[in-house]
Amino acid sequence: MNQRIVTGAHDTAATPASAAAHGHTVRLTAAQALVRYLAAQRVASQDGTSRTEPLFGGVFAIFGHGNVAAMGEALYQHRHELPTLRAHNEQAMAHSAIAYAKAHFRRRMMAVTTSIGPGATNLVTAAALAHVNRLPVLLLPGDVFVSRAPDPVLQQVEDFHDGGLSANDALKPVSRYFDRIVHPAQLLTALPRALRVLTDAALCGPVTLALPQDVQAAAFDYPVEFFAPRLVAFHAPAPSRVEIDAALAQLQRAKRPLIVAGGGVLYARASETLQALAASRGIPVAETQAGKGSLAWDDPLNVGALGVTGSTAANALARGADCVLAVGTRLQDFTTGSNSLFPHARVIGVNANGFDALKHGGLAVQADARLALAALAGELGGWHADANWTARALALANEWRTTVERVTHAPQQPDVLPYDADVIGAVQRSGSRSADDDIVVCAAGTLPAELHKLWRAGRPGAYHVEYGYSCMGYEIAGGLGAKLARPEREVIVMVGDGSYLMMNSEIATSVMLGAKLIVVVLDNRGYGCINRLQQACGGAPFNNLFDDCAQGPLGAPRIDFAGHAQALGAQAEHVANVAELETAMQRARAATRTCVIVIDTDPARTTDDGGWWWEVAVPEVSPRPAVRDARALYDAQLAARGRGEPLPGVAAPGDNSDET
C-alpha cells in the first residue's frame, strides 16, 4: 500500500520509519487513520512465547451509507492486517465481538462498525451487555454530517430541542467511554483514551467512537509515529498496603471463611493463585456464573455454583460462613440470593473496580485478583480455616459431585420428555475429553441455571455463559465469537427455542467463515423459564408458552428448527430422545461445518437439588387468590430476610448449621 508522506506542506519520499525519526506526517482520512492505528496495536501472545499478535482480532462490519464509503475503503486497504468480517445483524455481530474478548480473558478484542440509524441503535443492547459484564468492545457507528449541509440525512433521528443529538447518543449510558469525532485531529487524543479504557481492568467495558460521515472522509496530516506498532500493556491496580492489612486482619479472625470466585479471577489469570490459597488454608471456593471454571470441577474444595442457581454445598456453606472473600465479582442478586444468603458474614471485596469492591458492605481491596490473592497468601502466617469447617466443605463438595452425577445420568423414561439436565449429561458424555476441551456457550432462560449447577468445567474458559445481562439472542452469536477466539476448541452452544427465534442469523455467518459450531436447541415450545416464574408469583399461564398465547385461526406454528438451520447452511437434525442426542453429538463432533441438533424438552421440569430465593416483587393487590397467596408468602420472606432468619417456603440448602 502506497501512501504519501508529508512534512508540513512538502511531499517526501521518506519511509515511515525515517519519517518518524524526523517528525514527519502522513496525510490520511480520519477513517484510514483510525483503522491504521487499530492495526498497529500489538499484545504479547498468550502461549507463553515471546511472540506478539494483534490486539484487535478484526472488525465486524455491516456497511451502509454511513460507513461504506470512508470506513469501507479504509478497512479494504488494511484487510490483511485487520480482517473485516461480514455479519447479518448488528446486535449479533457486537455479541460475537464481546464473546471473542471474553474467550480471550480480555487480552484480545474486536471492533464493530455500522451505519447510522438502525445500524447504530442495534448496538445498544450489546453495549449494555458488555457494560454489565465488564467486557471490552470498540463500537464505531457512523453518524450524521457535522457540516449539516445535507441535514436531515437518510435515517437521521432529529431531536426537536437539541440539534447536536443523533441516534448514537443512545449509546452514551451504556458506554464506558464515548466520543463523537467532529474533526480528524481528535483521533490523536480519542484513540489512546479509548485504548486505555479497553485495556484497564477497572474501567473495562464498551467504548463508542461515533464517526460522522463527512469527518470519516476528511483528510489530515497525522504524525507518522502515531501509527508505530505498539505493545499494549494491560493495566490492573496492585493492592495497597493499608487495604491488604485490613483484609488480613479480617480474614485472620475468621473460622469459617468462604471464597466467592467471580469473573475477575479468570480475567486476572488468577486460577492457580486461587487454588493454592484455598488448598493451603483449607478455604472452600464457590463460583459465580462469570467465575465458573476458576477451579476445575473436581477440585476437592470447589463447592460449586453459588446463589439462586447454586449447589446445595455452596449455599449451605454461605449460610454458615463468618467471612466471605469475594474475588472479582459484582455480587449481583443471583449470587447473594437477593442479599439473603450471607448477610451475617463479613465481606472482603477484592476487585479491580472500587465500585464493585464496596458492594454488600464489603471491606474493599481495590486490586487485580491475582496480585491481591498472592499478597494475602504470603502474609497469612500460620492461619488456617477451622479444621472442622474444611472437613465439612470437603464432604459437602463430594456430595454435590455425586448429586451432579446422579442428576445428569438419570435413566430416561419412555414417553417422558427430557429436560435440561438430561441434555447436559448427554452433551458431556458425547466427548471423552469434553470436561477439558469443550467450551459451552449459553445466556438467558433456564439453561444457565442448570448449567451453573451441572456443567463440569475442567479449566478456565470452558464455561462461557452470559448471565450478567441475561440477554436472549447472545447464544449463537456468542458461540461464533468464542470459536473465532479459540478455533482449536469445540464450541457447543446450548439454546432454547425462544432465544433461537430471537437471533439465529449468525449460523449463516459461522458457515461462511468456516467457524464450526455445535448448536443444541432445546425446544420447549415457548418461554418455559418465565412461564414457571409467572406461576410461582401466582400468575396464570399467559403469553409465554405457545399454548397460552393469543392465536389466529391457524393456531401456533410447529417450527422446524432443523429445516431452518439447514436453510442457513448448517447440517441439522431433529432427535427423538437423549440416546439419539448422544449419537447425533458424536456425528456433530466429527463434522467440519456448523451442526444444529434439535430436541423436544419439558418446559415444566427443573433440577430440584440446589437453588435459593430470588426476590421478584408480587402485586400487592389482585382479584386472584393465587396472587394474594404469593404476595403473603413474599411479605413473610421479606420480613424473615430483614431479621436474618430462614426464609419461609425456601428449602434449606443442606446442612446449614453454624457448628464447626
UniProtKB/TrEMBL annotation:
InterPro entries: DHS-like_NAD/FAD-binding_dom (IPR029035), Myo_inos_IolD (IPR030817), THDP-binding (IPR029061), Thiamin_PyroP_enz_cen_dom (IPR012000), Thiamin_PyroP_enz_TPP-bd_dom (IPR012001), TPP-bd_CS (IPR000399), TPP_enz (IPR045229), TPP_enzyme_TPP-bd (IPR011766). CDD domains: TPP_IolD, TPP_PYR_POX_like. Keywords: Hydrolase, Thiamine pyrophosphate. Residues 444-598 form the Thiamine pyrophosphate enzyme TPP-binding domain. One of its GO terms (cellular component) is acetolactate synthase complex. Residues 244-376 form the Thiamine pyrophosphate enzyme central domain. The keyword Hydrolase applies. GO terms for biological process: inositol catabolic process; isoleucine biosynthetic process; L-valine biosynthetic process. The keyword Metal-binding does not apply. GO terms for molecular function: acetolactate synthase activity; flavin adenine dinucleotide binding; hydrolase activity, acting on acid carbon-carbon bonds, in ketonic substances; magnesium ion binding; thiamine pyrophosphate binding. Residues 60-156 form the Thiamine pyrophosphate enzyme N-terminal TPP-binding domain. It comes from the Bacteria. Belongs to the TPP enzyme family. NCBIfam families: myo_inos_iolD. This is 3D-(3,5/4)-trihydroxycyclohexane-1,2-dione hydrolase. It comes from Paraburkholderia caballeronis.
